[in-house]
Amino acid sequence: MKRMYLALALVLAVPVFAIAQDATPPAAPAASAAPAASAHVVKTPAELKWGPAPAGLPTVVTATVVQGNPGEAGLYTVRLRVPANAKIMPHFHPTDEIVTVISGQFMIGMGDTFDKASMKSLPSGGFAVLPAEMHHYAMAKTAVVVQVHGMGPFAITYVNQADDPRNSPTAGK
Ligand SMILES: [Cu+2]
């Protein structure tokens, strides 16, 4: 009886294997149909050009575009220099915001109210994913460089309009 089951199992297994063998690999997309290829980017830190941060971030923050264009659709990577004690008050984004701390001590909290006690401190090498629409806030414990990447266009909406540097240039200082 055992032998019969084994034979049956082999018979059943063979067609599955045959199907797997017959499966044709997906055809490579034609060059014209492929999405725009990513640009080849290899940069030393010294080659990064710093300037004003994207609109909506505190005016004390400076930024460099590492890759892509945060103002357009598609993958972008920027780095932000945030001076010690500067705050980015409760806000959210339409797409996931992925944060990597390059240097310094950064702090991130979740919710609608800035609460320093509940923030998590992230040293150099710290990492965070802030999902689209999730309310969060941040502060530089020391001067920091943080890398932010995600799918553009980058946008920021503050929970309280008074915290938006576009409305009050001293916000976040
Ligand atoms: Cu954010």
Task: Please provide a written account of the structure.
12% of the residues lie in helices and 34% in strands. It has a domain at 45-163: Sandwich (Jelly Rolls), CATH 2.60.120. It contains one helix and eleven strands. The protein has one helix at 2-22, and strands spanning 51-52, 62-67, 74-82, 87-92, 97-103, 106-110, 120-122, 127-130, 136-140, 144-152, 157-158. The protein has 173 residues and is mainly beta. Bound molecules: copper (II) ion. Residues 91, 93, 97, 130, 136 line the site of copper (II) ion.
Query: What is the CATH topology of the domain at 45-163?
Result: Jelly Rolls
Percent helix, as a range, is 10-25%
Strand order of the largest sheet: 1-2-3-10-5-8
Report the CATH C-level class of the domain at 45-163: Mainly Beta
> Whole-Å distance between the termini?
80 Å
Radius of gyration: 24 Å
Outline the biggest β-sheet: 6 strands, antiparallel
Dominant shape: globular
Bound molecules: copper (II) ion
The CATH architecture designation of the domain at 45-163 is Sandwich
Order of helices and strands: HEEEEEEEEEEE
Strand content: 25-35%
Within CATH, the superfamily of the domain at 45-163 carries the name Jelly Rolls
| Count, helices | 1
